[in-house]
Amino acid sequence: MEQFNQQLFLILNATPNSSHWTMVLAHFFAQQAIMMIPAAALIGWLWVPRRELIVKMLITLCIAMILAKIIQAIYPHARPFVEGVGYQFLAHANSDSFPSNHGTAAFAFALAFIFWGRMIYGAAFLIIALGIAWSRIYLGVHWPMDMVGGFLVALLACCLTDLIWSGLGKQVLNKLEMFYRRIFATLIQRCWVKY
Fold first, then answer.
1. Which spans are transmembrane here (predicted)?
2. Residues 6+ apart with CB under 8 A from 157
């Protein structure tokens, strides 16, 4: 598996001869695209509103990131540039690579939309998640299997969220909405945000 992982990485990894536009695109996906998660969550809560979906997505994201940290502690894996494989075009700390935190978060966000009935949005965010995954391999800071691991962790987190939601979800949502309505009462009255 390690040999396949390295071979696939070398196929996907940029080189000094890679085109300028693919480098620009990769840097956008690697650094800025992840910001679509909090932006979409904020829009989904304040203006759309899709509050049940947003709370499920946030729970999924929390579970996914906790699982990723546990896996990184149990199964430390060096990044490609640490092992001297390929080329690195993005500055990054020498932290454990498996599973990818960026990949885990992006896939958790996209899969939450797919799991809970917003297929068109889920498909769009899945394309963005795949772009994030590609970019971080292309720029030399992750292995392909780091992204596969992120996807699987996100999938497991969605399943666990479904279990948690069936027992506690409605109560959590009601309390969060009550808190929101107190804090944002003035903005709600002025119709700047949704009730």
1. 20-46, 58-78, 123-141, 147-168
2. 60, 61, 63, 64, 67, 108
Q: How many angstroms separate the most distant Cα atoms in the chain?
A: 60
pLDDT tens digits, one per residue of 123-135: 999 999 999 999 9
Backbone torsions φ then ψ of 156, nearest 5 degrees: -60, -40
User: Where would I find the H helices in 28-94?
Assistant: 36-46, 51-74
Domains of the chain: 2-189 (1.20.144.10)
pLDDT digits (tens, 9 = 90+) for 52-87: 888 888 899 999 999 999 999 998 888 998 888 888
- Distance between CA atoms of 133 and 128, rounded to whole angstroms? 9
In total, the chain counts a number of residues equal to: 195
Closest of 185, 128, 127, 158 to residue 63, by C-alpha: 158
Nearest alpha carbon to residue 36 among 98, 92, 110, 90: 110
pLDDT band at 49 (very low <50, low <70, confident <90, very high): low
